[in-house]
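so my prof wants the structure for this chain in the tokens format not the other one, which i didnt know existed until like an hour ago. anyway here's the sequence
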Amino acid sequence: MPATSEYFHRQKAGKYGYTSKCKSCKNAQIKDWVSRNPYKSRAQKMRWKALNYDKYLQIKRDDQRRRKYALKSGKIDINDWVAMLKRYDYSCAHCGSKNDITQDHIIPLVKGGQNVISNIQPLCRLCNSRKRDKLPDGII
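here's what i got, hopefully its the right format
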């Protein structure tokens, strides 16, 4: 794996200007730390938000613009949605529950997904709220 910004994060202090761990290894390490330290992670995020409030608002506005554009990019036909529900037997694609089924964007709108039927899956409200704006495994 070549030492390029495609595989490694930039770091001024690091040897050759890159971090010692590749992006996927570093992201896995961070994800593991966050799962083991949820309170510290939340406190750290809140501190960052307080110290960088203008940047936080800009990121939020950009996400809202991206979402608004994505919603304009396509419209889900009710017949297509009903056909998908029938295909999944009116149940959640993740856990199989038949309670409170909602439309979930497989690739979230804020991550560049489109509002088209091929990017929609039926999820129960619980699974949909757990997924939030995460990408499915295997998509980078």
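also thought this was worth mentioning. Residues 53-72 form the longest helix (20 residues).
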